[in-house]
Task: structure prediction
Amino acid sequence: MISVEAARPNERDHIQRISGKVFSDLGEFQNLPHRVFSVQGVQTFLARCNAEVIGFAMLGFFPWNQGSDEVADGWVAELLAVAVEPEFQNQGAGDGLWQQANTLIKRMRERRSVYEIQVICPQIAHAALRFFHKRGFVQRDGWVRSYSNGQKAVRLVKPIEGLPFF
Result:
């Protein structure tokens, strides 16, 4: 049985362990989730199978910065990292993590104007790209960057229902 809940401050080591497995081919990025675990404005969720932590998702909210005065007070929800242990992938942990993140985004929308959800994803992570495309994310523009090891990354966005897509 897979469950998802907010991470507690003493659960940082799970993030480092899973990041090391899942993001090892992304160079220095594998250390980023561990470093931003306690950053204000970032919420981390853990997926568990029985009592074992098998995955995590990190969600942050950042001021909208798209050069449009009409949405100067807007926010972007960014999935900073989503990772599930390889042996537990395709068993519902990713869905549970996405549902928790989406619930938090909906709650944030009650207080702030959140215009889109974004995620930066390795261009060759085909399973991750399929996961996000199934949930309505699209590659919005020609934005392509590289991780520290040179692997290409793309920006995927999901507009918030009922709001303009910039």
In short: The helical segments are 12-22, 32-36, 93-109, 126-134. Residues 93-109 form the longest helix (17 residues). The mean pLDDT is 86. Residues 2 and 115 are 30 Å apart (CA to CA).
